[in-house]
Amino acid sequence: MHKLLPLLAFFLCLIPVNTSASSLYSADGDRYFVEYNEHGAVMTSEHEKYLPEKDSDDTDIKKTKLVLYLGVECDAFSKQYGSGKWGQSPGGFIIRFDHKAFGFIRQEIAIPHAGKCNLAEK
Q: Which residues contact 86 (CB under 8 A, 6 or more apart)?
């Protein structure tokens, strides 16, 4: 039995461990991978979507992954939707742009000092 332990430990070391990004799911059922940095978080959609190009006419639609930037000052940005705001509450968090909103029900975004972005206090 003791002879098998080193062999078992060797094979356990070969199992890949995913330490890169966590993931969250929008109310629409879309999965977003989240990477944190000193400025906040970068959320990237798992799948490509047909999205309008910012500052162009409505006919310019491109298939691309959606990237949402959330800042530590409750600010948000997306190439397609422009500038916006985000906030969290006990029921989840929401990202709001002028013409689009993304809800994340029963989930939290782990941005440092995100308490100042609490929707329940506003």
A: 70, 74, 75, 76, 93, 94, 95, 96, 109, 117
Instruction: Find the farthest-apart pair of alpha carbons in the chain and give their distance in angstroms, rounded.
Output: 70
* Closest among 86, 118, 108, 83 to 98, alpha carbons compared: 83
The closest of 115, 100, 114, 103 to 32, measured between CA atoms, is 103
Query: Token match 């047909």: residue?
Result: 50
Tell me which DSSP letter residue 91 carries: T
The Cβ of residue 118 has, within 10 Å, a number of other Cβ atoms equal to: 14
Nearest to 22 by CA among 94, 104, 86: 104
The position carrying tokens 């000052």 is 73
* DSSP notation for 68-86: EEEETTSEEEETTTEEEEE
Q: pLDDT tens digits, residue range 15-68? A: 443 334 599 999 999 999 999 999 999 999 999 988 877 665 556 778 899 999
Report d(CA 105, CA 119) in Å as an integer.
13
